[in-house]
Amino acid sequence: MQKYLDIHPEIAAAIAAGKPVVALESTIISHGMPFPQNVETALKVEAEIRQRGAIPATMAIMDGKLKVGLTEAEITRLGKAGQDVIKCSRRDMPFVLAAGKMGATTVAGTMIMAALAGIRVFATGGIGGVHRGAETSFDISADLQELARTSVAVVCAGAKSILDIGLTREYLETQGVPVVGFGTDDLPAFYTRESGHAVDYRLDTPEDIAEALRSKWGMGLDGGVVVANPIPAEYAMPKSVIDGAIAQALQELEEQGVSGKASTPFLLARVAELTGGSSLDANIQLVLNNARLGADIAMAL
């Protein structure tokens, strides 16, 4: 494994010393936002984690290595390359690595690399899930299967609101993945604080979450945990606005025949356009909010 892993020296030293480290994905840089907001946001997220006393570990596949911790130059390179970078989930990682190509890690890809490096907490925007219409398309994100098997806590603003949240909840339940609400009984839906779907457990402090994680993994119960952290109220979007934009974006997705791993970037970009960029602002704020909670949980753990 050491042949493939390239852990930044600062992160390697922190892991060895048992200091708090927070994993960060790179698909949000390449596919989630346009340049230069993607690079600015990635650097702000890292700064937020440092301010809380933890160390950020942004991950990507570059130069034939699984890179755990990127330099500012590497983050900029990823951000400028944008959608030309290959979006990497479990399926894609060995092929991108073997070809020496550049890959941005999804939630699943980041969880795999975090687990290999010995990092237990990961902060992101929203997890993937069961897409609307999945009963005929079978379009289900590999993130959900990864949450079932890989022991990393994923701090997110719930499931992306472009998804079928009810079916996503059912799938997670079947796979035995706990969904924890941080200070909320209702699963947040990315841009909005509520989805109308309950969480499994509500915990109100990072320490309580850390204690539950210790119990789960200490018992030998492998697999991840979804820590659902609502977007701050002042940045949440009106449900009617976001629902209207998503409905239109979904119609265009179908008309244009977009499918598979291209679906989420297409939908997020169209929703941003249809909301005059306000969904992008909300996206940035919720990621920063998750980074802060991720750092606090890593510190408590």
Automatic annotation (TrEMBL):
Its cofactor is Mn(2+). One of its GO terms (cellular component) is cytoplasm. It is an enzyme of class 4 (lyase). GO terms for biological process: nucleobase catabolic process. Its EC number is 4.2.1.70. It catalyses: D-ribose 5-phosphate + uracil = psi-UMP + H2O. Binds 1 Mn(2+) ion per subunit. Substrate binds at K87, V107, S141, A142, D143. The active site is at E25, K160. Keywords: Glycosidase, Hydrolase, Lyase, Manganese, Metal-binding. One of its GO terms (molecular function) is metal ion binding. The keyword Lyase applies. Catalyzes the reversible cleavage of pseudouridine 5'-phosphate (PsiMP) to ribose 5-phosphate and uracil. Functions biologically in the cleavage direction, as part of a pseudouridine degradation pathway. Belongs to the pseudouridine-5'-phosphate glycosidase family. This is Pseudouridine-5'-phosphate glycosidase. It comes from Salinispirillum sp. LH 10-3-1.
